[in-house]
């Protein structure tokens, strides 16, 4: 009975490692229930999608926040190109396109420079240091080249937006390809726990050996270190594969 419980706990632990954080699951459930109209029973899909996206960005922080900023930079470039094509001056085009793009940090100094006629390109380069805002550095180069010729700047910025969109699509495809190896690495990291559960089921005493003897302690420390090193190395390889050359 104890052996069966041990094996069940090991499987439960491995399964839990592959799930999203409980907070994300709980908030997703709450937001779904709030989005249903009691009178019609139909979900308000656009509002739900917006709220879920904001919650996921706040909770996950890193990866999704960077993705949101890259998407906002692309949207900014699209908006600038559209405003310039409509005949507006560069500064007005930038401020008009930037409305509602909150995921981009350090954007206020750029808008202030656009309104006052200061060096917008320099402000864009300073804003480009934030993770996910690398495209602003390219936008700064476009700004320096074509601020005195609005038509030329519109076509250049439009081309930049298309290039950034293709780059983001490539990143998403690579991330999809790496989802499987990442999950496999997490499962492999949990296999030692499964092995200990099987040892208990067979009548061995792995915990007494690992925690009660010096050789067992050395094996435990070495195994834990190698397991953590494997996870770190897998994550580093995946991150390197996602970086565009």
SSE map:
Blueprint: H1 2-17, H2 22-34, H3 45-60, H4 62-85, H5 90-97, H6 108-116, H7 120-127, H8 135-146, H9 150-189, H10 191-201, H11 206-212, H12 214-242
Helix pairs in contact: 1-10, 2-3, 3-4, 4-5, 4-9, 5-6, 6-7, 7-8, 8-9, 9-12, 11-12
Can you describe what's shown?
- The protein contains twelve helices and no strands.
- The chain is an all-alpha fold.
- It has helices at residues 2-17, 22-34, 45-60, 62-85, 90-97, 108-116, 120-127, 135-146, 150-189, 191-201, 206-212, 214-242.
- Mean pLDDT is 76; it is low at 1-7 and 14-61.
- 79% of the residues lie in helices and 0% in strands.
- Among the domains are: 63-170; 190-245, no CATH class.
- The chain starts with a helix and ends with a helix.
User: Can you count the beta strands?
Assistant: 0
In this structure, how is the largest beta sheet organized?
Answer: none
Overall average residue pLDDT: 76
What is the strand content?
under 5%
- Tally of contiguous helical segments: 12
Which residues form runs of ≥5 with pLDDT under 50?
A: 1-7, 14-61
Radius of gyration: 26 Å
Protein structure class: mainly alpha
Q: Whole-Å distance between the termini?
A: 55 Å
Q: Topology as H/E string? A: HHHHHHHHHHHH
Helical residues, percent: over 70%
Which shape, going by the Cα principal axes? Answer: elongated
At a glance:
The protein is mainly α and 245 residues long. Helix content is 79%, strand content 0%.
What descriptors fit this protein?
mainly alpha, 0% strand, 245 residues
